[in-house]
Design brief:
294 residues; mainly alpha; Cytochrome Bc1 Complex, Chain D, domain 2
Length: 294
C-alpha cells in the first residue's frame, strides 16, 4: 500500500496538518467561550442548591416553615458564621454556639448536616441576598406544591391509623409510631428514637408539617422515606391527626421504663400461674421422704 507521502507531496501534507491544527484550536476556543457564556452565575447556582436542599424548611420572604424565614439574614448574621452553620450545623450546636443553640431552642429541631460545601454555602448566601434585596419571595416551584391537598377526604381516625401502622403506607414505608410518640396514641405510647410529636402541629403549623413530610429534610427520615415517600393523601391524613393530637390532653409519658415494669409484672404473673398449675408436681417424691424421716 502506498504511503500518504507517495500520494500527496510533503509540502501539502505539512499544510494539511497545519490547517487541521488551526481548526482544532478554533473549535477549542469556541467551545470554551460557549461554556463560559452559559456558565451559571453564583446566584443561579445558589438557587438550584437552595431549591434542592433548603426550601423544604425555609422560605425567603414567605414566612416561617420548619425553620426561620431567611429574608435579610445576611444583614443580621456574620457571613462566616452563616457559612459555618450551613456547612456544619451539627458541629456548631455540639460546640455550644449560643446563636445555634438559641435557634434550636426556638424552633424545636436542630438543623441537619446536609453535606453542603463552603462553595455551595457561599452561592446560597448570594442567592438569599439577591432575593432579600428584591423584596419578593423566591419563585420556587415547590412552594406551590407544599400546601396540603384539599380535595382528599380524610379524617382524624384515618390519620391515626396511618400514624400507628394499622393502615399500611402505600409505598411500604414504616409507620411514624416506629420512631415517634404522640399523646393521643395511648398509655403505651410510641417510639423514643425520634422527637415526641404531640406539639408538632402547634410549633410548625399545617404548612410546616406538610413540608417536613414531603421533603423529609432530616437524615433518618431521608434515609427511610426517599425511596418510599408518603402520598399526598397520607400526608394529609397524618397532618390532620397531628392537628387533633396537639389539642388532646396528654395521656402518654413515653417512658422506656414502663416497658420493663410491664415485662416484670407479666413475668411474675406467668411464674405464679405455672406454680399453681404444678402445685402437686413433687408430692409423689416428698411423701415417702417425709414418711421415712418420721
Amino acid at each position: 500500500m502506498s504511503s500518504l507521502k507517495s500520494i500527496v507531496p510533503s509540502g501539502k501534507v505539512t499544510r494539511l496538518r497545519l490547517f487541521a491544527l488551526v481548526i482544532f484550536c478554533l473549535l477549542t476556543v469556541v467551545v470554551s467561550f460557549s461554556t463560559l457564556a452559559y456558565a451559571a452565575t453564583p446566584a443561579e447556582q445558589g438557587q438550584a442548591i437552595f431549591q434542592q436542599k433548603c426550601q423544604g424548611c425555609h422560605t425567603i420572604g414567605s414566612g416561617r416553615l420548619v425553620g426561620p424565614d431567611l429574608k435579610g439574614v445576611i444583614a443580621t448574621r456574620d457571613r462566616d458564621w452563616l457559612v459555618s452553620f450551613i456547612t456544619t450545623p451539627d458541629k456548631l450546636i455540639g460546640q455550644g454556639d449560643p446563636i445555634a443553640r438559641e435557634i434550636v431552642q426556638q424552633y424545636g429541631l436542630p438543623m441537619p448536616n446536609l453535606g453542603i460545601t463552603e462553595e455551595d454555602a457561599q452561592a446560597i448566601l448570594v442567592y438569599i441576598e439577591a432575593q432579600s434585596a428584591g423584596g419578593k419571595p423566591a419563585p420556587t416551584p415547590t412552594q406551590t406544591t407544599i400546601a396540603t391537598p384539599t380535595t382528599v377526604s380524610v379524617n382524624t381516625a384515618t390519620g391515626k391509623d396511618l400514624f400507628t401502622g394499622k393502615l399500611a403506607l402505600k409505598n411500604g414505608g414504616p409507620a411514624c409510631l416506629s420512631c415517634h410518640n404522640v399523646s393521643a396514641i395511648g398509655v403505651i405510647g410510641g417510639g423514643t428514637v425520634g422527637k415526641d410529636l404531640t406539639t408538632a402541629y402547634s410549633n410548625f403549623g399545617e404548612t410546616g408539617i406538610t413540608s417536613i413530610l414531603k421533603t423529609t429534610p432530616f437524615p433518618m427520615m431521608k434515609e427511610i422515606y426517599t425511596a418510599k415517600p408518603l402520598t399526598d393523601e397520607e400526608i394529609t391524613g397524618v397532618t390532620t391527626f397531628l392537628k387533633e393530637a396537639s389539642s388532646a390532653p396528654s395521656t402518654t409519658y413515653q417512658n422506656p421504663g414502663l416497658f420493663f415494669i410491664i415485662g416484670g409484672v407479666a413475668a411474675l404473673l406467668i411464674i405464679g400461674i405455672f406454680q399453681w398449675l404444678w402445685r402437686g408436681r413433687l408430692a409423689g417424691v416428698r411423701r415417702p421422704l417425709v414418711k421415712g424421716g418420721s
